[in-house]
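Help needed: design a sequence for this.
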C-alpha cells in the first residue's frame, strides 16, 4: 500500500499539476515561505537545488493561486492565508 504522505513531486511535476510556472513557484517560496516549504533532495549535497514538494505544498500552492485569481494582492494573499491556515 502506498502512503500518500510520503509521495514527493519535482518542481516540473508541480508546475504541470498546478499550472504555475516553475519560476513563479520559486518566487512564491520566497514570499510565502511559511506555507510552501519543499524539501531539498539531500542525495545531491546539502545545498542541493532539487526540490521535492509534498501534497500539502501543492494544496498551499493551489490555494495561493486561487486567491491571486480572485484579484487579491500578494499582501492580501498572505493575510488570507493566515486566516485559512492559522496553524502556520
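Sure. Designed sequence:
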Amino acid at each position: 500500500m502506498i502512503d500518500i504522505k510520503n509521495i514527493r513531486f519535482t518542481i516540473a511535476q508541480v508546475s504541470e499539476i498546478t499550472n504555475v510556472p516553475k519560476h513563479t513557484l520559486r518566487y512564491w517560496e520566497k514570499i510565502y515561505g511559511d506555507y510552501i516549504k519543499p524539501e531539498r533532495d539531500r542525495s545531491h549535497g546539502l545545498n542541493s537545488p532539487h526540490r521535492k514538494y509534498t501534497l500539502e505544498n501543492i494544496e498551499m500552492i493551489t490555494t495561493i493561486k486561487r486567491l491571486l485569481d480572485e484579484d487579491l494582492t500578494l499582501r492580501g494573499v498572505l493575510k488570507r492565508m493566515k486566516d485559512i491556515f492559522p496553524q502556520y
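The chain has four helices and two strands.
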